[in-house]
Amino acid sequence: MTTPAAVALSLISHTNAGKTTLARTLLGRDVGEVRDAPNVTRDATPHPMIDTPERDALILWDTPGFGDSARLANRLAQQGNPIGWFLSQVWDRFRDRAFWLSQQAVANVRDEADVVLYLVNASESPDDAGYLQPELDVLAWIGKPVVVLLNQTGKPRAREEEQAEAALWRSAVGARPFVRDVVTLDAFARCWVQEIALLRVIANAIEPAKAQAFARLSRAWQARRLAQFDEAMAALVVPIARAACDSEALPEAGLKGTLADFGKAIGLGDNDGGAAKARASQALAARLDTDIRGSTDQLIAIHQLSGDASKDVLERLSGVELDAPVNEGKAAMMGGVVSGALTGLAADLAAGGFTFGAGMLTGAVLGALGGAGIARGMNIARGRSGATLRWDDALLGGLVTPALLRYLAVAHYGRGRGGWVETEYPPFWRPLVTRIVDARRDAFARALSQRAPGCDVRAIGEALAVEMTAATKEVLDALYPDAVDWQASYNLRSNPSSLSNVRP
Questions:
Q1: How does residue 406 score in pLDDT terms, banded at 50, 70 and 90?
Q2: Edge-to-edge strand list for the sheet holding 179-184
Q3: Domain range spanning residue 400?
């Protein structure tokens, strides 16, 4: 028989260390008040994180911060003393409210918490954190298992740097049995994969009576994050799939264009359609830009953030190719220079290198039809009557790396930072993403090759989503090798939804 249970996690720290900011990031909604001032949080407040069909509940408590830690540790040592109790419950409440709030936080954690999440300000050295040892003494008095969270670590850094910082704080914390681990979970720059690693640490600290309930809650939390991951992958590939099928028709050349073609065929003149091509290119670029912004806005919403894509941060993209019917005039002129089987070569050259296969037409037939006839037949066979511009393969392939970098930026953006703002990527991201995408370039090219001869945005998006998911998983594993549990959870799901979420 399944026994439901409530599991409580209490966030506690020195005052103004970022508890409420981290709570907002974990909960995906605004709670409490965030200000750069001490004692902003005045009451211990429970916030539901997630529940299960079995009626389990995971609760996150946001508590007032520790203030005068040394004095607090000393006062707690007097708990068997009636005078000390009187001072803490009566005198302090009216004469020293900040100190009284600290005592209430301790009482709440002692009474409610299953596991304590103790934040420290990692922007300072442990040697400069004079509050650390007294607060560890307070946590020892509380007697609950503790996970130390390194907060305010700054932008994401290389794994070696984060490990060195964690080792430094582990050394400062020392060998205290109630401290189960020291992990990095910055309220501004954490990634959801790190949350899953934290759940594993917490699972090892939960009392046996609640272990099964917490396992169910952990699975529910992971399922929520993995569903967001699927939605993000689908949103990420839509602009690329739409760009693959996008095109812009060019106006018919008419007599002026025919004369220009004749001049170019004999080496004279220039491209008189430059202005039309420029306008068509701008139209393509505008639609792609809109789609990328829309995709970014969707990523922001999926990750429960506010704000929208900036108008000046997306990379400028260019690279169009002309997709035009074989020019009959060029083919006729070149066909007049050569004859017989070589007329096929003339048609190829006039089409910009198009090859319709050896043996498809014999040299005798080519010679009989002439260059113009061959060109006309090829256009009919290919269903082409007018010229269009479309994005070239190099451009489409080049959209993958910026898209994955954009995903990482959003996935690492903590809600506590406020509205989304695009910033520079950490320098180690781009070479990592580039290496992984380059290794999968052929797979992405195969997905994009589906745009010829027909073009189905949904089919291309589904194929791209498979490859983007695989590449992103590899990137996240490289960044967070300690969180490999999420891969197993992802692969075991019976109904992954990434492909069905791709929309044209």
A1: very high
A2: 45-51, 57-62, 6-13, 115-121, 146-151, 179-184
A3: 229-324+387-492
